[in-house]
Structure to design on (242 residues):
């Protein structure tokens, strides 16, 4: 049931990359209300031109990620009652990305860094070859499986202080993806990928502060993946492969 007559104060970011400011709104308080519910109410009742992203509303797509009271979160799975700062909630776009408008960010650079990290699978077989059987108990498969649930929401990228201070840094998501492929025995791009992730802005730039791991909504550990890349690159170098 709704809390009749009760409201919450919302400070919400409006504007674009060159001119962005917080604007205050009063929103009716409701039971089990999510941050995405709040943003949607403002758009439907007060600001029809408010820009933001969402799709599934059930924590599957990650497109609704925003900064809530200073922390990156999926707004569809964040209940207002759990993140209120007194009687106020502050909603802003993700950090470390250009603002297109209001709460919508430009993710082009985020995905371009996946390309720079060679985050694409390089097949070693054709459709005419027999299916390669890989035991889920193999160490390399377990390592790959530990990171494959990334859905590209950008929360780890927004929480990374290294990204904030070094525009060339590939970021936790791209490096985590590279690590899953380094451990995929079917992939043929291992050495070229290790070279890519140890260049400028590569895995060696990570300070292991673990902001990415702290805020990942899927409880992945990109910090561990990046440490794995450092070790794999060092071993490949000692073997003369790089």
């Amino acid at each position: 049931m709704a809390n009749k007559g009760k409201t919450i104060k919302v400070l919400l970011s409006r504007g674009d990359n060159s001119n962005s400011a917080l604007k205050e709104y009063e929103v009716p308080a409701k039971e089990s209300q999510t941050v995405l519910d709040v943003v949607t109410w403002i758009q439907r009742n007060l600001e029809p031109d408010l820009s933001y992203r969402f799709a599934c509303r059930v924590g599957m797509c990650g497109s609704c990620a925003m900064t809530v009271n200073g922390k990156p979160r999926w707004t569809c799975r964040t209940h207002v009652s759990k993140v209120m700062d007194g009687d106020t909630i502050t909603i802003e776009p993700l950090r470390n990305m250009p603002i297109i408008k209001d709460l919508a960010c430009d993710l082009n650079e985020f995905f371009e860094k996946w390309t720079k990290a060679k985050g694409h699978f390089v097949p070693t077989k054709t459709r005419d070859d027999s299916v390669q059987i890989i035991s889920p108990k193999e160490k390399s498969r377990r390592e790959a499986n530990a990171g494959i649930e990334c859905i590209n929401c950008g929360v780890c990228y927004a929480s990374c202080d290294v990204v904030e201070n070094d525009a060339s840094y590939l970021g936790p998501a791209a490096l985590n993806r590279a690590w899953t492929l380094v451990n995929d025995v079917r992939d043929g791009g291992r050495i070229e990928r290790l070279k890519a992730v140890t260049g400028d802005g590569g895995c060696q730039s990570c300070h292991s502060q673990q902001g990415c791991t702290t805020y990942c909504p899927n409880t992945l550990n990109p910090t561990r993946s990046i440490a794995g890349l450092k070790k794999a690159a060092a071993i490949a170098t000692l073997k003369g492969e790089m």
